[in-house]
Amino acid sequence: MNSKRILIVGTGFQGICDAAHLVGVPGLKIHMVDAAPFFGGILNSVPFNDFYIDKGLHFFSGVDAKMHEFLSEISSGGIHPIMSPPASGFGGDVVENFDLPDLSNLPVETRKQILSELLNFDDSPLPHPVNLSQHLHDRYGPTAGGIFEGIFKKIHTVDANSITAREIQKTGLVRLKFDTDAEMLRLKSDPRLDDTLAARRPMETAADSISSFYPSGGKGMFGFAQDAQNWLSSRGVQIHLGKKIDTFSRSDTGWDVNISGAIQEYDQIVWSNGTVHQLAKILGISAQDEDPFLPVPVVFAVFGVNAADVNLDSYIQIFDPVDVVFRVGAGGIFGNQTKGDGSTFITCECPAATTSALWEGAQDSTDQIWRCLNKYDLVALDVEPNWVKILRVPRTLKLQMAGSENSLAELANRISAEHQSIFFRASPPGFRRDIFAASTQLRGILQL
Ligand SMILES: Cc1cc2nc3c(=O)[nH]c(=O)nc-3n(C[C@H](O)[C@H](O)[C@H](O)COP(=O)(O)OP(=O)(O)OC[C@H]3O[C@@H](n4cnc5c(N)ncnc54)[C@H](O)[C@@H]3O)c2cc1C
Question: Is 66 within a domain?
């Protein structure tokens, strides 16, 4: 039996999935390393007022049977489905059971304009869009495309014309709804529009396909990270925390890596933290451009509330660009963190550029954020929060800049050609379902 040593860099969900899929390969020794002093990357919830507060709204979303089996195994069954479907907000209205923008409360003239632009689409194939702005206009027409551009800017704090078209998959802008479900269904019967438009599924169908799960143990996502750390450790994975990898040296058979003062030898490195440019720098490969992935900064406002005052079981996405809040989730309620006296918490994600007044004065903006919750009737009107905790996270989701596709592919090709014993993903997957799916292929790719 051959013995092989692998180092996985990053203990976020990607590192966890990659490690778990390699566990059990005969003769394989797996080490994991993370720059942070804790395990789990962004899954690490913050303890506050006897609660565990996630850094934002986190779910295991889009979970299929295979991923469910995986999560259940890692957490010894300690995950539960989120039974209430999400909601969508726009213009002060809440639409239940829908997680994309619903523009059906726009003035009738605007909606007629959207329809006429959709029906007058030229059927000839369009050139590949140079950026997301063009893609939104090509896909939805100038009126709806322009509205979606404004929504994109609110949600991601960056202009859609700076971002590559394929990043639409990381947004809630993948389909358009601008009228009643019946009218949308009627329009969708036109094959040219079916893929562009959305109608809500009936409630019972939505409930049948529950696909969001959350850890049950009352410790937020930290509970899952802890379970994963224990699961991996008990299967022989060695975990090194608080150690940033910033150099690798070539050895005769692979790589020497300095971890906490001791040189460790590895045959293979799995780069599971999503930053190809960082990897290139470590390897001394010069990139043509700066890192093309722009991080979205988010202010998280967590409000201590009484569960009885919350009109929300899961979460809502508020798409209207005039509202400061994007996602609001009843994290304390669906995460089994409601105390005996009924106190719990809700979390608001407010994307904010790091130069903005909201970012700078986040602590002073809590009233503005709370009023937005009132506007959408998410909390009882006559109450004030019991406490507020502000977290500012400068790097959350990352979006690839327009025009960087070729130089990124070229850089990835150079790394792969020069260093076959380093595995990385040039365009890292965004959602956990995609992270999980990517890791299921790792054994095959590494030929283990
Ligand atoms: C606020 C927020 C909410 C989200 N909600 C959802 C959701 O509900 N559903 C969903 O499917 N997806 C969600 N996502 C998207 C995505 O699924 C998560 O971002 C995912 O958990 C990311 O995992 P990761 O391992 O790629 O990155 P991370 O969790 O960021 O982990 C990367 C790790 O690598 C370490 N690292 C980096 N460089 C080095 C180095 N040189 N040496 C050592 N260690 C290093 C870092 O310290 C970090 O711990 C959300 C993302 C954010 C930001």
Answer: no
Instruction: Note the pLDDT tens digit of each residue in 29-51.
Output: 999 999 999 999 999 999 999 99
Q: How far is CA 264 from the centre of its chain?
A: 33
- Could you tell me whether strands 327-329 and 343-351 are parallel, antiparallel, or unpaired per DSSP bridges? antiparallel
Nearest CA to ligand 1 atom 50: 58
CATH number of 346's domain: 3.90.660.20
What is the total count of domains within the chain?
3
DSSP letter, residue 379: B
Tell me how far CA of residue 266 lies from CA of 5, 7, 156, 258, in angstroms: 5, 6, 39, 11
- Rounded to the nearest angstrom, the distance between the alpha carbon of 34 and the centre of ligand 1 is 12
174, 227: one domain: no
In a 10 Å sphere around its CB, with 0-12 CB exposed, 13-18 middle and 19+ buried, how is residue 398 labelled? Answer: middle
What is the identity of the amino acid at 71? L
Q: What does pTM read for this prediction?
A: 0.93
Residue 92, in any domain of the structure: no
pLDDT in tens, 71-91: 999 999 899 999 888 999 999
On whether both 304 and 230 belong to a single domain, the answer is no
- Domain span at 334: 297-394
Q: Which residues line ligand 1 (CB under 6 A)?
A: 9-15, 33-36, 41-43, 55-59, 61, 244-245, 273-274, 278, 396-397, 430-433, 435
CA–centroid distance, residue 438 to ligand 1 (Å) = 14
Atom of ligand 1 nearest to the CA of 245: 42
The CA distance from 347 to 335, in Å, is 12
Q: Is the residue at 333 inside a domain?
A: yes
